[in-house]
Amino acid sequence: MKYEGALQMRIRKRLEQVIEMAELFGLLVIGVGTALAMGHLIWTMAKADAVTLTDMLLMFLYLEVFAMVGQYLKAGQLPVRFPLYIAIVSIARDVILRAGANTELHLLASAGAIVLIAVGVLLIRYGQSRNPSGSEVRRDDSAS
Questions:
Q1: What does each C-alpha distance from 129 to 62, 77, 81, 83, 116 come to in angstroms?
Q2: Could you name the domain of life of the organism this protein comes from (predicted)?
Q3: N or C: which end of the chain has fewer CB atoms below 10 A?
Q4: How many Å apart are CA 3 and CA 44, to the nearest integer?
Q5: Domains contained in the chain, number
Q6: Helix, strand, or coil here: 130?
């Protein structure tokens, strides 16, 4: 009986290590992939000798992905706000890319989606400031 508990603890510890290594590998793949994509975008802009607004928004998306990876590496957790910021910029980029083909309904739906996501971000930030979780240290979060 006594050995079964120790065996379970060792197995659990090994599984946690495997999962942690898989997370780190996944973060490495995401980071390297994002760096390669950003490098490709910079190369394309340099070859074209032009920078468009959609290029700048795409760079911003890449920087947000880097920020997510960095935050996960530093804190071991990922605030839900980062993917929401990426969603807002992605919708804006989609509207710009489809500039000639946008219908009024598409523009209205895109604007509504951005407003809803922005309200969601505000609610999350308000909730975090009023009711911080036990693991969070209350700090100025103005950088994100």
A1: 27, 17, 14, 19, 20
A2: Bacteria
A3: N
A4: 61
A5: 1
A6: helix
Mean per-residue pLDDT over the chain, rounded: 86
Q: What is the residue range of 64's domain? A: 2-130
Position 115 in a domain: yes
Residue pair 115/92 in contact (Cβ under 8 Å)? The answer is no
Letter for the amino acid at 99?
A
49-88 residue pLDDT tens: 999 888 998 998 899 899 888 888 888 777 788 889 989 9
67 contacts: CB under 8 Å, gap ≥ 6: 82, 144
- More confident: 2 or 119: 119
| Type of residue numbered 134 | G
- DSSP letters spanning 84-125: HHHHHHHHHHHHHHTTTT--HHHHHHHHHHHHHHHHHHHHHH
Q: What is the pLDDT of residue 97?
A: 85
Short-list 84, 99, 85, CA closest to 54: 99
Structural domain contains residue 140: no
Residue 89: partners with Cβ closer than 8 Å, 6 or more residues away: 57, 60, 61, 64
